Amino acid sequence: MSAYSALTAAGYRAQVRDRTTVFFTFAFPLLFLVVFGLVFRGKAVEESGFSYLSYTASGVLSWGVANAAVFGIAFTLMQWRADDILRMIRMSPAPLSSVIGSRYVLALGVGLVQSVLFVGVAMLPGFGLVPASRWPLLIPVLILGVTTFLLLGVIIGSIADTPESVAGIANFLILPMAFLSGSFFPLDSMPEWLRNVSRVLPLRYLNDAVSAALTGRGDLSDIGVGCAGLVVFGVLFGAVAVRFFRWTKSS
What percent of the chain has pLDDT over 70? Predict the structure, then answer.
């Protein structure tokens, strides 16, 4: 517990001191919300009749949480391995669970703050988001989302050895996934073949579950399917992360 607490405290201090990281973690997704909210204000998706905000608010929130979870752990593992910090931790009594667990708690905290800020801004008069009555289900959905994408970040942080490679791999995976999963544009407006492609992407399941819980665009079965999809991807990413995790550059 002492190692876990020390790693968590050190990670928190490093995160809040880095203003660039704070900006891109919290303000960047809000900029997307403001832009999409102003551009599509008062407009509805013809295919479904729901407002664009019901799509973009839940989609951008999902993307922001997933993005923060991936980049937060990936950069940390890469940097700690490059600086031989992981090697020193390995020689100490601290288990690997303390390393990953400390980042997991931080990722959950970041996701919570992101969600509160995001939903609060989306509910302002200029946007007018009205949360559905089942909005408390957003909490377990986001916990599963953070868990799944944190494990994806562990994979990236284990195979990448430079900040450039972390950014390159993460953006190569997350940005196309965001467009194909409906984070920025409604899937209902996309061709059917693209909607089918999105079913093999974890962000699609997070988007659908967040949307059903937050805006009511969907029912409880959509939340269940979304959570089940995240669990499947989480197990898959976890198995791959264990296989490729490296304490040092050579092992």
Answer: 88
